[in-house]
Amino acid sequence: MADKKSLGLLALISIGIGGMVGGGIFAVLGEAVSLAHGATAVAFSIAGIIALLTAYSYAKLSVKYKSEGGTVTFIDKAFRDNILSGSINLMLWLSYLVTISLYATAFAYYGDTFFDHNSILLHHLLISFSIILPAIINLVSASFVGKSETIIVVSKVILLIIVIVAGASYVEPHRLSPHNYCTPLSIVVGGMIIFVAYEGFELIANSAEDAKNPDKNLPRAFYSSVLIVIALYVLISIITVGSVSEDKLMEAKDYALAIAAQPSMGHFGFVLVSIAALLSTFSAINATIYGNARLSYIVAKEGQLPRSLMDEDKKSGVPFRGVLYTTILSLILANSIDLTEIAIIGSAGFLLIFFIVNISALKLREDIKANKVILYIASIFSFVALLTLLLHTYNSNPKAVIIFLAFIIISGLFELIYGRYFRKQMFGRKYKFKANWKNFS
Asked: Looking at domain 14-439, what is its CATH homologous superfamily?
């Protein structure tokens, strides 16, 4: 962990951008085009507005409750020890498993482009490789995660800017005209399915304890990182839809960003973006395994997950079982459901969590000195977005909605059974371990 008060504004913004511009844009761009068509940029903008509204809640909560627990801490502060807080904490952990699966699936699709003869076996081998190797890296050298992540984040942002600049003159405006839009509902649903691409700005909250001048820098970091990423995504959408025919994009939906680089940079651009996608998704998996293992450690330390997740290697400080469970469950998810379903489940999961965070901010609005109108708008928008996504996609992809609802039921039942029976016997009361919270590193 960084030295106390070592993170300035630029570092905090980098954390937010790095969290969002992980593997998400490489994975879901084709999904967005297939749903929103010429209005893909509009879909990304709608999703970005919800992210920005939720960033307001995170900014206010982070300033008041500076803790590496982030989302977990905010929900606990608002709802204390009950089924809702316990369930949402587990749901957050499960949602990060889904994002790992999303990145792994995207890794495999871009990896497939380097082989002449693709097969289902090769695809699943690539998925498994992209999860197992980062897990080994986490267990052997956790410091590698932090050292490599900054370089890769900067590299992929520069690459996206290169694609935007190089492709600007190849955009054909008629492809972006309202005549190529789908129905308003489909545009909104498209934005909600790719909402998972904005997941990540909340990681700034986990760094609040280390922020310099946190009262000013935390809000600036949240708003700046989200606005920068909205601009990046919208511009990438314009270049993609404006310079490549929709037929071509649908043929290569799972690696659409590589196709978007072809008009301006030819085959070299395709290969360059594909390599960047492999590095980006790999690093995102690496970082998410790292973060999710520590999330399980924190939640277990609070008594909301089994105590076995509190084990950690004395030399590396890595929660071994947290990494192991994250790896196994991610492998199962990534190899059993397709990219569209993963995107829907991931987006629905974070929309639900962000809705609860907005409600938490509303409940604590006097303590955090927040504008209740903005909080009401953020809560309503995130809830309506989640409801719209689930209702609309149930007809087209019921499996994804059923899996998401199963996650909620599993989280609720786990908290009900484990929380109300085993935890009381094993831990006494929930906050018995709170005194040791800051010893986590």
From this structure: Amino acid/polyamine transporter I (1.20.1740.10)
